[in-house]
Amino acid sequence: MNKDEFFIKRIRELANLSYQRDIVTFSDFLNLNEQNIVNEQKNQMPGVIIECSGGYEQAERQMVAFHPDALLFPWEYPITCLKIEPLAAKFSESLTHRDFLGAVLNLGIERSVIGDILVQEHTAWIFCHNKIADYIIENLTRVRHTAMKISKVDNPEHFPTPHFETISGTCASVRLDTLIGLAFQSSRSNMVSFIEGGQVFVNGKLITSNGYEPKDGDIVSVRGKGRFRYEGIWGQTKKGRYSIKLSRYQ
C-alpha cells in the first residue's frame, strides 16, 4: 500500500466512524494535495458531510471534519492558535517561517498536527491541534537564540490578517500559466513544469491544465513558491491585452 492509498484508507475510516457512531471525526492538518484527494473521494463517502477549516479564513493547511448530515449538537474544530513573541522585541533576531516551524518540530512534534504559521515582524501565530498546544507552551522557550513567550489566542478578532503585495500586468488571455508567471516574476514557459508536475492548486483543487482560467477571487497556490489571489480584469489596452491585478500573500 503506497502513501496515497494509506491516506485514502484512513480518510474513509474517519468518515465511516462518523456515520456509524453519529459523531464528528477530524483529520490532522492536511496539505493541499491531501485536501485534493479528499475532494476526489467525497462521492464515495455517502451519509456524511465533509467540511474544512484551518482555524482562520483562507488557511492553506486545513483540518477536515466528517459529521452525519442530521447532526443535532454543536461542535468545534480542535484547533488552537498560539501567539509566539520575543520576551524583548528589540533584542530579537530576524526570524522567518522556517525558524518558527523548525523550533516546533525540534520538540519532536509531527508536522501533521501543525497548521499554518503566520509571521509578522518578530511574532508568529501558530495554528495547531488542541492536544499539542499545552506541550508547545511548556517546552518552546526559544526560536534560534531569541527567548520567547507564548499565549493562547481565543478571540478570532486578534488573529493576524494576511499581508498582500499588489501586482498588476497585462496579458493576451487570462490563463493559469500566465498568472503564475506574473505573480512570481517568471516567464510563462518556466511555470509550465509546476502545473504539469502537480504543484498548482486553485481553491485547494489540483489543476494540471496550463490553459485553465481562474475566476475573480480564486486563490492560487504553487508549492515551493507561495500563493496569490486573482483579483480580476480591470481594463484593456489599445492593443486588446487585458490589464489584470493579483494580490500575492506575504
From TrEMBL:
Residue ranges of domain RNA-binding S4 in the record: 174-233
Keywords per UniProt: RNA-binding
UniProt superkingdom: Bacteria
Sections of the chain in a coiled coil: none
PROSITE patterns on file: S4
Protein name: RNA-binding protein
